[in-house]
Amino acid sequence: MLDLRFNYPSVKKEADIFQQYIKGLPEQEKYGMLTPPSFRPAPAAAQEIGQWLELPPDTLRYRSDVITTCSGNSALHCILTWFRNMEETAAIEEFTYTSFKASAHELGYRLHTIACDAQGMIPEALEAHLQSSNTRLVYLQPTIHNPTCSVMSLQRRRDIVTVIKRFRDVYVIEDDAYRFLHPSPPPTFLQLMPDKTLYICSFSKVFNPFVRVAHIVYPRNILQGVDSIIRYTTSGSSGLLSAFARYLVQGDLLQQVIAEKRHIAELLYEKVKNIFQDLPYRTFPGSYHIWVKLPEQLSAGAFAAEMRTWNIDIMSSEDFSTTGNQEYFRIAMGSTWNAPELVPSLQTLAGAVRKHYST
């Protein structure tokens, strides 16, 4: 079975970099890394995170705090857990990340879908919802959205910032997992609106899933006591991996990995264009996933089941929807980009979709 559900692009260079890092560790540092680290990065490490995220120097000095956990999923769950005593709802896009949806449902949130267009959430629709509800959390994936591949323009981001600032105590949860695949992404909401943004920075996709480290950058007036939530849900990250993540952002090794991943994704994009050229689909030149529209008479669940008989595993749009939408399916190539059976499987998928459109 070719797994086209998971989307963690990795390259050989990652293993080489980690091996070199371990070999170069001074003897006295090795044992210190066996001790669990503080959830709060040291001031120098926090400033390095800020530099990596291209934040103004004053952001992490005066406006925002940073805390570390073991993954982006953990970060989302901890944020939702902290807000749950005060909040019952969250605003999301028409299709949203499956783990956010699962955590929200587990914690009893009601998720409100806001109308979207090719750039993502529509500011006017968000404003109308905030005017008629008590929602204070807005979850966004503004750069190479999962699953739709949409990218919010700078103007769209500014328009959403304008809306958010009109409402007291409304915050954006910015999940920017795929930002690194965009060659020149617009500014983050964290850069545009640090006082109202909770930003999640994970190393699982930008480097590799084994680096169980993610940072939450958040306004200083909220998330008091979130350390306890991290402690009893995951115990945080490890000393070794936290130190390695810091090492990655200090030099240019991570940028080399990112450049290689972008190059691979651009080559995949050319293959996808040729294979799906006459079909309705969305992607981005640096993306490892594709969002394909199915004909009206065919449900994504039925199509996914059909593809499993061909040993191809894909995700239905129902997985990303709170309304049961089955009009699309997602192909994720991050874990299989170099698999010899990938291109034949993409051809099988495209051929099957064409066949259904012609009937």
TrEMBL record:
The keyword Transferase applies. Residues 18-338 form the Aminotransferase class I/classII large domain. GO terms for molecular function: pyridoxal phosphate binding; transaminase activity. Keywords: Aminotransferase, Transferase. InterPro entries: Aminotransferase_I/II_large (IPR004839), HTH_trans_reg/aminotransferase (IPR051446), PyrdxlP-dep_Trfase (IPR015424), PyrdxlP-dep_Trfase_major (IPR015421), PyrdxlP-dep_Trfase_small (IPR015422). The keyword Cytoplasm does not apply. It comes from the Bacteria. Gene3D superfamilies: Aspartate Aminotransferase, domain 1, Type I PLP-dependent aspartate aminotransferase-like (Major domain). Pfam families: Aminotran_1_2 (PF00155). SUPFAM superfamilies: PLP-dependent transferases. This is Aminotransferase class I and II. It comes from Chitinophaga japonensis.
